[in-house]
Write a structure and sequence with these properties.
homodimer, eight-stranded mixed β-sheet, four-stranded antiparallel β-sheet, 26% strand
Chain lengths: 408, 408
């Protein structure tokens, strides 16, 4: 008998019939003898509908009330799922984030889980009940206010709850079959990955793979809870994310992120403190800077380029322009017609020349590389947006990810 | 400076534009110097939509999860209203029933308010904020579960909150201009009542007047908080409900209730215990019996008639048929083609002959009276459903309620 935490996303509980399907899966698992905790997101478009409604009411930001509003979404989904599970002869009870003891900091709209005190969850499990917990939400013990966790919050709820309960596995059910070697919409020959390490998954997620949020992976890694990602629409196998994988891959997968903007400050006088003059105010404005490249200085003048998420582009441009005029730079260029392409694999640590292979393959394909950054298990290149599909297909083939290469 | 509790119903906050209208009313009141607590219902059809969704998911009853589901409705409305009020430069904060300290018994779907401990409400008022509280919901301290108050729950929340805070007035805003001498859809000459006593309002509400729920009036009466009923769609005057009215009316208003079913057990042996044999099992089944008439016994045989709300008709018929066969009665008749017509006025206490006038007027109008019941300030007659409009118009005229009779 295991303790399983399952998470179902919004499309998995998109309508009444889907909710009954999920209930059947949960009830079958419970009847097999496992203790089951289910984390659930708001149904389908609920969150978007609530956001649209709030935009109709008010053009302004109301973080505290927005969290109050949005948390109604999971409330609906969890109550309906509990009903459907009960209908199958399995006892079930739903809890809000607050009732489930999910304690967060005070940041409305992007709260971080600080602690989980799942007294009521534990009690209900001991009574043999399936426990449904609202994803994405918690409560701040400091302010007694309801908070939401921001993007990827339900995955984080699931992994953190699994850690807090000492669960055996955290299962993330979604609308795809698992983690793939590349986005199958771009690379037709992309294959589902059987096993991937926490570190590789973190790099892939940060590089743009949307299937699993980095926050959830971090909880799994920190507390040693394996995560299983699979489809809620079929019973096929999924992807295991865990500490150690059976096989070390040189390149486990390829990810791309087209939602970035590149900003270049031209003709910056190359003297101590210019980089700080740019990146300190960006940090103050809350802009998350991804890649940074500073050209080799020529006659005391250099260019600094960096990428930011597209939603931070306007703020970043304003900051860059202020810095440019302050230090006497020549000007600022902004482009969103770029994409970041990353290859990830823990085998890179011991296998030299992976980055070189990547650059050679892209060159042979006629793809120009604009910026480069690396970690010990990742190489990322910024390229022109129009080259992305071709570049991904070429690297997927070059690193042996096509066809049966993944052991399938 | 007063402490005002206002309640806005579902139609009053039916869409984004209506919510902004309500926000403007609330903000103006706050800016005039009053402390304001607002009780809000779910928007328009939200509750019906949630009920339909739950029916799609499950055909069964799930009282605890149904309350979890339905309480999402007020949550949405209260958060949006708080945003809209803040946009007008007035600080506002929304609280769930639980956060506002509305403590109930454990009955899901029909909980009774047992106590209100409005610590957070008081704190927010002291900080100068408008406080929005979800109507219709509370929390049971015994089970720590979220509960709903059932029909008329938001009115009850408002009156109880006004009582707990020592408020100066409880204002109920709705889609009509106040309490009328009769339903204006039936009696064209019906007039808004300026003032009505708690006792009269209780009788009118019990007799079928829908504008204000008896539970709210009971709170007002018990704690001496006057209630003001008015429209949220205009600024016209409404109706004051209070302990003593300036003028005592012989007949303050007329109400009718067409949602009743009459059940008659024929040929009941007239011996001790037969009434108990009928009404005890009805009570056990939770059927609320309204009027009861037992004919004068002839040759040791009698008829017992009673009325019940239409939704209890099937259960009541089953119970009555079982009792009939048990005591050897002749049979059971059921009809829903009836209506109950009531005249209400505290002046009846001292004015003899009001009932006689009612019966005479109905007789002159050719309306047959089927059953009669009275209280010290009310006379009710059950008549044929098809006679209702004519009977109401005739009584409205006969008791001087037409035209300027109400002082307008």
């Amino acid at each position: 008998m295991s303790l399983v935490v399952q998470k179902y996303g919004g499309t998995s509980v998109g309508d009444a019939s889907r909710i009954r399907d999920v209930a059947a899966r949960v009830a079958a698992r419970r009847k097999s003898g496992d203790d089951v905790v289910v984390i659930v997101s708001a149904m389908g478009d609920t969150t978007d509908d609530l956001l649209r409604l709030s935009a109709e009411v008010s053009p302004n930001e109301h973080p505290r009330e927005m969290d109050m509003l949005l948390t109604a979404g999971e409330r609906v989904a969890m109550a309906l799922l509990a009903m459907a599970i009960q209908d199958l002869g399995v006892e079930a009870v739903s809890f809000t984030g607050s009732q489930a003891g999910i304690l967060t900091d005070t940041t409305h709209g992007g709260a971080k889980i600080q602690d989980i005190r799942p007294f009521r969850v534990r009690e209900a499990l001991d009574a043999g009940q399936v426990v449904i917990v609202a994803g994405f939400q918690g409560v701040s013990p400091d302010t007694k206010e309801v908070t939401t966790l921001g993007r990827g919050g339900s995955d984080a709820t699931a992994a953190a709850m699994a850690a807090a309960l000492g669960g055996d596995v955290c299962e993330i059910y979604t609308d795809v079959d698992g983690v793939f070697t590349a986005d199958p919409r771009v690379v037709e020959s992309a294959r589902r990955i059987d096993e991937i390490s926490f570190d590789e998954m973190l790099e892939l997620a940060a590089a743009g793979a949307r299937v699993l949020m980095p926050r959830a992976v971090e909880f799994g890694k920190r507390f040693g809870v394996p995560i299983y990602v699979a489809s809620s629409f079929n019973d096929g196998p999924g992807t295991w994310v865990k500490e150690k994988t059976m096989e070390q891959a040189i390149v486990r997968g390829i990810a791309h992120d087209s939602a970035a903007t590149k900003i270049t400050v031209h003709g910056v006088p190359d003297r101590p403190g210019v980089a700080a003059a740019l990146f300190e105010p960006l940090a103050v404005e809350g802009v998350s800077v991804d890649m940074i490249v500073q050209n080799v200085s020529q006659s005391g003048i250099t260019d600094i380029s960096f990428t930011v998420p597209r939603e931070h582009a306007d703020v970043a441009r304003t900051v860059a322009e202020a810095m440019a005029s302050e230090v006497g730079a020549l000007g600022v260029d902004v482009t969103s017609k770029i994409a970041r392409l990353s290859i990830v694999g823990s085998g890179m640590r011991t296998e030299p020349g992976v980055a070189a292979t990547m650059f050679r393959e892209l060159a042979d394909e006629g793809v120009n590389i604009d910026m480069i950054s690396t970690s010990s298990i990742r190489v990322s290149c910024v390229i022109d947006e129009s080259d992305v599909d071709r570049a991904m297909q070429c690297l997927h083939r070059a690193f042996g990810l096509d066809g049966d290469a993944n052991g399938e």
